[in-house]
Write a structure and sequence with these properties.
Elements lengths: L14 H12 L6 H4 L2 E5 L3 H13 L4 E5 L5 E2 L4 H5 L9 E2 L2 H5 L3 E3 L3 E5 L4 E4 L4 E3 L2 E4 L3 E3 L23 H12 L5 E6 L9 H16 L4 E6 L7 H11 L4 E4 L7 E5 L4 E4 L2 E4 L2 E4 L3 E3 L1 H6 L23 E3 L13 H19 L8 E11 L2 E12 L2 E6 L9 H20 L2
Parallel strand pairs: 1-2, 1-9, 2-5, 9-19, 11-12, 11-17, 12-13
Antiparallel strand pairs: 3-4, 6-7, 7-8, 10-18, 14-15, 15-16, 20-21, 21-22
Helix pairs in contact: 1-10, 3-10, 3-11
Length: 425
C-alpha cells in the first residue's frame, strides 16, 4: 500500500504509530548532564515496556535504559488468532530483543522479583539488584485462576485460554486440527476489564473460517459473561453472511456466564445447564501482573491508578505504570494503547529529568479484527485529557468507512508498523 495509507480518509490507518513517532522526533531532547546521569529501569518487555525503552533511547541516547524480561522472544497477541486458524506460523508473530539492543538499550533476561522503593532498586529473581532513577512497570496481566470454578493452570492445558501468545496458541491450534468434523468449539468470555476486548469475537470468526474449510459440520459457541461486545452489529452481520448457522453467541442474561468447568470431560457449566464440547478456549478474568501487587502500585480493586499525563503511579513516587496493568479508561487494553501510553510516559520522564513539564498528551488506539481471509474490521479511538482525566475526544470512525477487504490490508500494514515502532524489528 505504501503512500496510499498517508491519504486522509477520516482516519489515517497508521496514525497511532506515526503520530507518536512524529511527536518523539519533534521533542527530541538535547543531551544534558542531568539526563546523562539518569538510569531508567523497565520491568516487562511487551508492547508497553519495549515501546517505552525504544522511545527513551530515541528521545535522548544518553539515558541509560535497562529492560528486564524473562523472555528473549516475545510473541504478540495481535495476529495470534491467525496462528490458531492456521493462517500464520507461530514464528511470524515472534520478536526478539535485537532491535532494543541495537538502539542502545540494555536487555537483562530475568524477572523482577521485588521493588525496593526507598532505595530505588529492583531485586532480580536470579539474584542481584539494579538501581534506578525512575522505574517503569509494564507487568501486563495475570489470570485469576479458579474463575470459573475448576479452571487453573493445569486446566488451561486441556482448555487453553490462548490469551498469552506462545505455547497456549499452539495447544489451541492443535486441538482444532484434531477435532472431529461436526464438533463444537466453545469460547468462554469473562466479565470485567480484559486485554483486547474484541479478541474473543475475532477468534470465533477465524475458528469458524477454519471449520468452514476443513470441518464444515462443526459450530462455534460463544459463552459470554457480558450482554454486549465491541462492534457487535458488524461482527454479527459478518457471521450471518460468512458463517450462517455456525456461530452462536449466548449473553449473560441468557445463561452465557461459565460458572464451572470439568476440563478432562470438556464440559462447561452455566446457569442454564452444561455444555459438552470438543474444544474449549476458556479466557479467565484478569488483573495486573503479580509484580504490580508486590510493588504496591495496585489499588484495592486490583488495577493501577496513574497520573494520566505522565503515567506516574499515584501510589509510589518515581514509579510509572503503563500498558494493560494501568487504569487508563476509556482507552482499551490493547497493543496500540500500550504503545501510545509508553511514548507519552517516555516523553514525561525525559521532561521531568530535564526540569520541564510533559507535553500535552494525545492518545490514539486502533484494534483490528479479522473476519475471514482478506476481510477485517477496526475500532478506532482518540483520547486526551479533559478536566484531568483521560476521555475519548473523537471516535475516529471515518465517514467513508473502508471496505472489509481494505481493512484487512490496513491490519497487515498496521501490524508491521507497530511491531517496528515497539520492538525495533
Amino acid at each position: 500500500m505504501g503512500m496510499k495509507l498517508m491519504r486522509r480518509r477520516g482516519f489515517l490507518t497508521l496514525a497511532v504509530v506515526a503520530a507518536g513517532a512524529g511527536l518523539l522526533r519533534r521533542v527530541r531532547a538535547s543531551p544534558s548532564r542531568r539526563l546523562a546521569r539518569a538510569r531508567i529501569v523497565i520491568a516487562g518487555g511487551g508492547f508497553a515496556g519495549a515501546s517505552c525503552a525504544l522511545s527513551l533511547r530515541r528521545l535522548n541516547p544518553t539515558i541509560d535504559v535497562i529492560l528486564i524480561d524473562p523472555d528473549e522472544r516475545y510473541y504478540t497477541g495481535p495476529m495470534s488468532n491467525s496462528v490458531i486458524a492456521g493462517w500464520r506460523g507461530l514464528d511470524s508473530i515472534g520478536v526478539s530483543r535485537r532491535g532494543l539492543m541495537n538502539a542502545g538499550a540494555k536487555y537483562v533476561r530475568d524477572r523482577v522479583a521485588s521493588v525496593d522503593v526507598p532505595r530505588r532498586r529492583v531485586r532480580l529473581a536470579g539474584g542481584g539488584t539494579i538501581g534506578y532513577d525512575r522505574l517503569v512497570l509494564a507487568p501486563g496481566i495475570r489470570f485469576l485462576w479458579g474463575k470459573p470454578e475448576g479452571y487453573d493452570a493445569d486446566a488451561a492445558q486441556l482448555m487453553p485460554h490462548a490469551w498469552q501468545a506462545g505455547a497456549q496458541t499452539q495447544i489451541l491450534a492443535a486441538q482444532l486440527q484434531g477435532m472431529r468434523n461436526g464438533g463444537v468449539v466453545a469460547i468462554s468470555v469473562p466479565a470485567g476489564p480484559m486485554r483486547c476486548p474484541p479478541g474473543p469475537f475475532e477468534r470465533a470468526s477465524l475458528i469458524a473460517s477454519y471449520l468452514r474449510e476443513h470441518k464444515p459440520r462443526s459450530k462455534v459457541l460463544i459463552l459470554d459473561s457480558n450482554n454486549k461486545f465491541p462492534k457487535q452489529d458488524a461482527f454479527v452481520e459478518a457471521w450471518h453472511s460468512l458463517y450462517p448457522g455456525m456461530i452462536e453467541w449466548i449473553p449473560v442474561v441468557e445463561g452465557g456466564a461459565v460458572l464451572r468447568v470439568a476440563p478432562a470431560r470438556r464440559i462447561l457449566y452455566t446457569s442454564n445447564g452444561e455444555h459438552k464440547v470438543d474444544v474449549a478456549s476458556v479466557i479467565p478474568p484478569q488483573a495486573p501482573g503479580a509484580l504490580a501487587v508486590q510493588a504496591g502500585v495496585a489499588s484495592d480493586h486490583g488495577w493501577c491508578p496513574v497520573n494520566p499525563e505522565t503515567f506516574e503511579s499515584l501510589m509510589l513516587a518515581n514509579v510509572h505504570v503503563i500498558g494493560d496493568a494501568c487504569i487508563a479508561d476509556p482507552m482499551p487494553k490493547a497493543a496500540s494503547a500500550a504503545n501510545a501510553q509508553a511514548n507519552q510516559c517516555a516523553l514525561a520522564i525525559v521532561a521531568a529529568l530535564d526540569g520541564n513539564d510533559p507535553p500535552s498528551p494525545v492518545y490514539e488506539s486502533v484494534c483490528f479484527s479479522a473476519l475471514a481471509h482478506g476481510l477485517a474490521l477496526s475500532i478506532h479511538g482518540r483520547f486526551g485529557l479533559v478536566n484531568g482525566a483521560i476521555q475519548q475526544t473523537q471516535s475516529q470512525e471515518p465517514a467513508d468507512s473502508p471496505s472489509a477487504a481494505q481493512e484487512a490490508r490496513n491490519a497487515d500494514d498496521w501490524y508491521k508498523e507497530i511491531v517496528l515502532d515497539s520492538f525495533g524489528a
